[in-house]
Specification:
- By secondary structure, the protein is an alpha/beta fold.
- Helix 3 links the parallel strand 3 and strand 4.
- The longest helix is centred in the N-terminal third of the chain and has 21 residues.
- The model has no long low-confidence stretch (mean pLDDT 92).
Length: 112
């Protein structure tokens, strides 16, 4: 399942507090129902990476063998292609991937 997060505050502490108060309960409910989870965060400064990665890694540990990953980016086609790729990458969990508008090209594009 894909769960979109945001909008969040610009300040990393305030953003993390809102995530934990508002999004984390929903994420846990999805995982408790037996679904894998991909969180999609809004684009943010690099100082948000630490709390986002820690949240994703802890959810992945707590709900294993369910898979939990997170993406951040502004380009919808790139987010969709990466989410689709992650859905088929059964050994990848606990990752936070920041995408850019350039993308990875055919590496994550669905097969034609």
């Amino acid at each position: 399942m894909i769960l979109r997060v945001g909008p969040l505050a610009d300040n990393p502490l305030d953003a993390a507090a809102r995530f934990h108060a508002e999004v984390l309960p929903e994420a846990r409910a999805v995982l408790a129902r037996g679904s894998d989870l991909t969180l999609v965060f809004p684009v943010a400064a690099r100082d948000h990476r630490g709390w986002r990665l820690a949240a994703v890694q802890e959810l992945a540990r707590q709900y294993a063998p369910r898979r939990v990953n997170a993406l951040s980016g502004a380009e919808e086609a790139g987010l969709a292609a990466t989410a689709e790729w992650l859905a088929g990458a059964e050994s990848i969990t606990g990752q936070y991937l920041r995408l850019d508008e350039i993308g990875a090209g055919s590496v994550v594009s669905p097969q034609q």
